[in-house]
């Protein structure tokens, strides 16, 4: 269920939630809603980690302003979801040279047999959070870092999906106004 599109599951559970709500069994509907939110959070977490863990190598950098303890470009070499090397290019040095040295000295990391990160889940989550921070720049990426389009459904979209109402902010979901029908007099 984690590797497939969650929308059919949301629709099926949504029907059950709607039926329980129609019967005024709100506590049971809330239990299903809580479980559905947990399922969606787990699906999103799974794809977030697996997405970048498929990459044999990601080299990224983030600028840290002085007077920080270690100012300059923080450079990370990530292999299969594991931090393989870290370096700092001090202000005034070429970060590309430091990044190339970090890649050369980085730990050899083999892909995991189960498709998950080659590091612990906790380490992979910390790395993913660092990669997603504002200011992080990708220097090089080997492989495809991607997630399925519908793997993450925002919890704020659940009521709309459960009740099957089109999203008014989505232009594709809006219906076009129809022209008045011309009728001929009888």
Shape: elongated
Number of helices: 5
Strand order of the largest sheet: 3-2-1-4
Domain count, please report it: 2
Average of pLDDT: 84
Write the layout of secondary structure elements.
Elements: H1 7-22, H2 26-53, E1 57-64, E2 72-79, E3 82-89, H3 95-105, H4 121-131, E4 136-142, H5 158-163
Antiparallel strand pairs: 1-2, 1-4, 2-3
Helix pairs in contact: 1-2, 2-4
Task: Give a nutshell description of this structure.
The chain is α+β, with helices and mostly antiparallel strands and 186 residues long. The chain is 39% helix and 17% strand.
List the defining traits of the structure above.
186 residues, alpha+beta, 2 domains, 4-stranded antiparallel sheet, 5 helices, elongated
What does this protein look like?
- The protein has 186 residues and is an alpha+beta fold.
- The protein contains five helices and four strands; from the N terminus they run ααβββααβα.
- It has two domains: 7-50 and 149-163; 55-142, no CATH class.
- The radius of gyration is 24 Å and the shape is elongated.
- The termini are far apart.
- The longest helix has 28 residues, at 26-53.
- The relative contact order is 0.17.
- Strands 3-2-1-4 form a four-stranded antiparallel beta sheet.
- Helix 1 (7-22) runs antiparallel to helix 2 and helix 2 (26-53) packs across helix 4 (121-131).
């Amino acid at each position: 269920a984690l590797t497939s599109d969650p929308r059919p599951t949301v629709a099926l559970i949504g029907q059950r939630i709607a039926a329980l709500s129609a019967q005024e069994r709100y506590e049971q509907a809330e239990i299903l809603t809580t479980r559905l939110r947990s399922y969606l959070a787990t699906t999103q977490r799974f794809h977030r980690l697996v997405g970048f863990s498929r990459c044999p190598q990601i080299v990224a950098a983030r600028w840290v302003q002085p007077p920080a303890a270690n100012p300059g470009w923080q450079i990370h070499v990530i292999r299969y979801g594991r931090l393989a090397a870290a370096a700092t290019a001090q202000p005034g040095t070429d970060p590309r040279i430091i990044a190339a040295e970090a890649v050369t000295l980085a730990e050899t990391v083999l892909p995991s047999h189960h498709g998950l990160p080659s590091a612990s889940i906790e380490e992979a989550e910390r790395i993913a959070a660092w990669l997603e921070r504002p200011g992080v720049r990708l220097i090089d990426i080997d492989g495809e870092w991607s997630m399925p389009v519908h793997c993450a459904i925002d919890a704020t979209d659940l009521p709309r999906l459960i009740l099957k109402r089109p999203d008014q902010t989505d232009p594709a979901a809006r219906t076009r106004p129809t022209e008045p029908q011309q009728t001929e007099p009888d």
